[in-house]
Amino acid sequence: MPIIWGRANSSNVMKLLWFCAETGLDYERRDAGGAFGVTREAGYTAKNPMSLVPTLEEPDGWAVWESNTILRYLASTTPGAAALYPDAPRARAGIERWMDWQLAHLSKPMTTLFFTHVRIPEPERDWSAAEAARRQAAELWTLLDRQLEGRAFIEGDTFTLADIVLGIFAHRWHALPIERPELLELRRWYGTLAGRPGFARHVMVPMT
Q1: How far is CA 33 from CA 52, 65, 88, 203, in A?
Q2: Cα maximum dimension of the chain
Q3: What percent of the chain is modeled with pLDDT above 90?
Q4: SS3 content of the chain, % helix, strand, coil (to 5)
Q5: Mean per-residue pLDDT over the chain, rounded
Q6: DSSP 3-state assignment of 18?
Q7: d(Cα 27, Cα 13) in Å, to the nearest integer?
Q8: What burial letters (b/e) apply to 4-17, b meaning 16+ CB within 10 Å?
């Protein structure tokens, strides 16, 4: 079975664990990153020169890194995962734009918020930067709220990779002790995700 290298409390590792829960894909997870170290060791950097998590290692030793790339690979190679990442070019492009949007736009403000409230010691927190990030994230979540109007999921009535990559951050947005605009479609979608066992098991966990 494939090996997922990465600590379970990493948002990018959560994407893969949730995917595996949705598809029934068996895997072995090995702790790496953060307090576990490993990522600077020669054996790991040979698989992932960025020294980050996650890394997916196949039984034959082939490895790939970057969480959204790993999701695309797994969705293309895992039996029963076609609905998460369909072959039709326009359907696939619709999903991929949100995966890219997560990386290019949403990750930065959400990471600032998460680190400020969870990982940075309180005396060292930059509250002005956190407030700027909160406002930026609120604008982005408002955009997604409009996208969700009339749709069960981000790209229609079917759960896809777009919901996985954004659902991780939706949980943090709703769980962090911050002011949020009332976005009813976003809240409804988040509630739908909360009812999925893989989301409850791998994403709705204490933030550390």
Answers
A1: 7, 14, 36, 18
A2: 51
A3: 100
A4: 60, 5, 35
A5: 98
A6: helix
A7: 13
A8: bbbbeebbbbbbbb
Q: Which long-range contacts (CB under 8 A, 24 or more apart) does 90-93 make?
A: 91/155
Q: What confidence category does residue 13 fall into, taking pLDDT thresholds of 50, 70 and 90?
A: very high
Angle value at C-alpha 28, between 11 and 163, nearest 5 degrees: 35
pLDDT at residue 199, rounded to an integer: 98
CA separation for the pair 63, 200 (Å, rounded): 28
Upstream peptide bond of 109 is cis (omega within 30 degrees of 0): no
pLDDT band at 177 (very low <50, low <70, confident <90, very high): very high
- Structure tokens, 37: 């170290």
Residues 84-139 pLDDT 10s: 999 999 999 999 999 999 999 999 999 999 999 999 999 999 999 999 999 999 99
